[in-house]
Amino acid sequence: MPRVKKATIALKKRRKILKRAKGFRWGAKSKERIARERLLHAAKHSFQDRRKKKRNFRKLWQIQINAAARERGMSYSVFIDKLKKANIELDRKVLAQLAQEYPKAFSALIEKVK
């Protein structure tokens, strides 16, 4: 049986890894072993951060809603509670957008739940 060398496949694999590692610092952009390790960590962090992004945005919306509600004499928790009791099903993203871009509509919403 003839001996099989993996030269072409290994070279393609190496090139693919180094292409993905472009922009990394120091040896991670040019040395295959370090590049592979850094790519593994980068993939792990990007996966985790896609989930963290959703958490961070929800926190931001809560802060924006709280600030807008307090300007109109109501705390965030009370406002959300009254919205639920009034069966107004607006999510936090929409409420934050209303508070920022349409303050009159947000004020009307607060008056409605009071």
Automatic annotation (TrEMBL):
InterPro entries, per the entry: Ribosomal_bL20 (IPR005813), Ribosomal_protein_bL20_C (IPR035566)
Gene Ontology cellular component list: ribonucleoprotein complex; ribosome
Keywords: Ribonucleoprotein, Ribosomal protein, RNA-binding, rRNA-binding
Superkingdom assignment: Bacteria
CDD domains membership: Ribosomal_L20 (cd07026)
MF annotations from Gene Ontology: rRNA binding; structural constituent of ribosome
GO terms (BP aspect): ribosomal large subunit assembly; translation
SUPFAM superfamilies (UniProt xref): Ribosomal protein L20
HAMAP family: Ribosomal_bL20
Function: Binds directly to 23S ribosomal RNA and is necessary for the in vitro assembly process of the 50S ribosomal subunit. It is not involved in the protein synthesizing functions of that subunit.
Family: Belongs to the bacterial ribosomal protein bL20 family.
Protein name, as recorded: Large ribosomal subunit protein bL20
Native organism: Candidatus Giovannonibacteria bacterium RIFCSPLOWO2_12_FULL_44_15
